[in-house]
Amino acid sequence: MTSTRPGPDWLADAVLYQIYPQTFADSDGDGIGDFAGIAEHLDHLSWLGVDTVWLNPCFASPFRDAGYDVTDYLTPAPRYGRTEDLVALVEAARRKGIRILLDLVAGHTSDRHPWFLAAAEDRADHRYIWSDRQADGFVASPGSRPGWYLPNFFDCQPALNFGYARGSSEEPWRQPVDAEGPRANRAALRGIMAHWLDRAHPRAALLAEWGEPAAAVSAGFHADFFLHFGGNDHGLPLRSLWNNGGGTVEEFWQQSPCYFEAEGRGTPQTFLDAWRSAAELTEGDGYIVLPTANHDFSRLATGPRSGEQLAPALAFLFTWPTLPAVYYGDEIGMRYLPGLPDVEGSVLGPRYNRAGSRTPMQWAPGPSAGFSAATPDRFYLPVDPDPRRPDVLSQRADPTSLLHTVRRLISLRRAHPGLGTAGGVEVRHAGYPLVYVRSGRYLVAVNPRREPGVVRVVDGTGDGRPVRPLEVQGVRVVDGELRADGFSYGVFELG
Ligand code: BGC
What we know:
- The protein has 495 residues and is an alpha/beta fold.
- Helices cover 21% and strands 17% of the residues.
- It has helices at residues 35-40, 42-48, 83-95, 114-119, 180-197, 213-218, 236-242, 269-282, 310-319, 392-396, 402-415; strands spanning 16-19, 52-55, 59-60, 72-76, 99-101, 130-131, 139-140, 148-149, 207-208, 223-225, 287-291, 323-327, 425-430, 434-438, 442-447, 453-456, 467-478, 481-494.
- Helix 7 (236-242) packs across helix 8 and helix 9 runs parallel beside helix 11 (402-415).
- The structure holds beta-D-glucopyranose.
- Beta-D-glucopyranose binds at residues 65, 68, 153, 157, 209, 295-296.
């Protein structure tokens, strides 16, 4: 099928991997990850089959929100290396067929960005959103300028003023999108993007982190993520799959059981409905990314979900027509670690602790490579203290490991484009197991609960079409019945 989607053609087959630069790989032993560390581990990514890396913000920052508070968009944070090191990393990755997506934090800057420092002294500067009176959510000016500014997240993150589509008499700070400040900001963003993309990257893709694919794609992005929050449905589609009540939890989140849980109390229908609607709205224009986790919410291995329960989730991720995104460490089943202290803005509330998803990548048994060489006060975050914690080295040596399963699933998706974004999907059973046919040709079953499940299927069973197992753990198709063990998955090709 020829894609009619605009944007770079490589994106349709992309397998994304998110690298949190602080904690991925530490080449110089200072306790914080760096560009050279990532470069040293590119072999891991190419062995796994990943071809696209999302690198979290790596620019100059006081790190009060872990780098989402930028003071200079054109200069990497020294902790990660120099521009030359970033360029060398991108080039080394390119030689291995891996693209690197840089993260442009466009909604706000640090309050120590020179733009904001200037705006806080000058009433005529409208690059940020200022109010003459103390309105809800606004923060007092830190400079000689009177008034209050609007933050976007933490108070140290003033929102950039891109203007508003509609004015409001109650909110007199709303400026039109063609006012001077919004125009200056758009020009600045174009300058920043040109600065990095003009280093000969003509086939770049633009991904949003909005959590609202239909809106982001219609706004011109090539793809957007399902996230645990954001959008009209407040992240419900993704949470209905993964959020088991452990790890990062907002008080207002619905806590009915998610689909991927051992007791089998969930339903995939919430996700299926939301995905169907977003897919229809983005069809032909862009893609939806389905992440295992990210730096803002719990890992796949959170609370009671661990070990053998993870493979069915990953089988779903790699056989669904969304773009798969693996959060670093989820390919080995790294655990979300509860109760860690706040690091650079990671703790947002009593139950909302992002630190547990940001711990150092577990490369090897023992103290984790590189990070261990640091003195205790320079550790960015502790490594999982559990002596049985998963690590890359041990799983590489074990063909039955989750790491090898993920590698096989990625190579399966590559070998059979009908399992990727181009092919259709027909859901046969929206329960335990979830059973669907991709591209009229592949029968897929995932059973994330402990109990087995049996479903009558017709194709490839009762009508003489044989089924050929492509990648199976614990699923059989016998006499028109699909029988799925607890915690199983199967991908079959229909004859
Ligand atoms: C990031 C968060 C960050 C927030 C505010 C989001 O896009 O994913 O980690 O805290 O922006 O800066």
